[in-house]
From TrEMBL:
PROSITE patterns: D_2_HYDROXYACID_DH_3. Gene3D superfamilies: NAD(P)-binding Rossmann-like Domain (3.40.50.720). Pfam families: 2-Hacid_dh, 2-Hacid_dh_C. This is D-isomer specific 2-hydroxyacid dehydrogenase NAD-binding domain-containing protein. Keywords: NAD, Oxidoreductase. The keyword Lipid metabolism does not apply.
């Protein structure tokens, strides 16, 4: 008997990355969650779910035969894992698969802002070589060496990103709800500090948290007001953790040097989002990308292989990896 799998991402995502599901699976693919997929989910054994997309109501699963929801990514906020546990439905993600991808994204964009690459590229193409050179030198250009790099959330991705910044010569400071192992901190020459201290001393502050009740709007006006005027804020984890209205005001008032955002409260980002409507003078220090920090050929190949392997192990009675509930 073939197991029935509903996959809410197109087959092309897998084939383009050289990954095929095991032959014991009968897989039906959808481009995204919709009414047609709901009907088939009712009778499926497993749901394969992209980490990015709309939240799915738990009611969809109440009378279904689903035993496992496998997320092809780290974030699992599209479903309520606690309510699904009560329905005896396992929820798994894949952690650490895109750690290097996210780390490179954070490093690259931090350097771009510290060296004013965005405005330099724009103005040199307008024939303003001398003007832009003078301008960005006057605004101060920084290298990573010796800067305070602070990380909020030190799971597999946050820890990897911190390691990258350490290799570039940054002083590393960590904030996490758990006490971090001394061996980890010692390897990075790092110190664990409070959230308030992060915002007071950070030259670069990088967020690596899940979105939940305790992290929603965690970064607000009060925290932003503590930041150095030359500091950079990076969020490549989940939208909703930063209050976007408060961040837009901080940027507008030049309270901080700049921001790098790969994630937003609403995705796709809405046209009236204040971060899209900043003056050009402010936009030069803001980098916005469409939730692609962890997307590389290598990371997707690993994510997809791990996802299918986890599903196969589960249906064959073997222990699950990455269980979140």
């Amino acid at each position: 008997v073939k197991f029935k799998i509903v996959c809410l991402r197109p087959k092309k995502d897998f084939t383009d990355n050289g990954v095929k599901p095991p032959s014991i699976f009968d897989v039906i693919y959808f481009e995204k969650f919709n009414a047609n997929s709901v009907k088939l989910i009712q009778n499926a054994d497993v749901l394969i779910l992209p980490a990015v997309g709309e939240v799915i109501d738990t009611k969809v699963f109440e009378k279904s035969s689903i035993k496992l929801i496998q997320v092809t990514g780290a974030g699992f906020d599209r479903v309520d894992e606690k309510k699904l546990r009560k329905l005896n439905i396992n929820v798994c993600n894949v952690t650490g698969a895109n750690s290097n991808s996210v780390a490179e994204y954070c490093i690259g964009n931090a350097i771009s802002l510290l060296r004013s690459i965005k405005i330099a590229d724009k103005l040199i193409n307008l024939g303003k070589f001398s003007e832009v050179r003078k301008q960005i030198i006057e605004e101060d250009l920084f290298e990573l060496q010796g800067l305070n790099a602070c990380f909020i959330g030190l799971g597999p991705i946050g820890a990897c990103v911190a390691g990258y910044f350490h290799k570039f010569g940054c002083k590393i400071f960590c904030n996490d709800i758990k006490s971090l192992q001394k061996s980890f901190l010692n390897n990075l020459g790092a110190k664990q500090i409070t959230l308030e201290e992060v915002f007071k001393i950070g030259d670069i502050i990088s967020i690596h948290l899940p979105l939940n009740h305790s992290t929603k709007n965690l970064i607000n006006r009060q925290k932003l007001n503590l930041m150095k005027s030359n500091a950079i804020l990076i969020n490549a984890s989940r939208g909703g953790i930063i209050n976007e209205n408060d961040l837009a005001k901080a940027l507008l008032n030049k309270k901080i040097r700049g921001a790098v955002l790969d994630v937003f409260k609403d995705e796709p980002i809405k046209k009236n989002n204040p971060l899209l409507n900043l003056p050009e003078e402010i936009k030069k220090a803001v980098i916005l990308t469409p939730h692609i920090a962890g997307v590389t050929k290598q990371s997707w190949n690993y994510l997809f292989k791990e996802s299918w392997q986890n599903v196969e192990n589960f249906l064959n009675g073997k222990p699950l990896k990455y269980l979140v509930n």
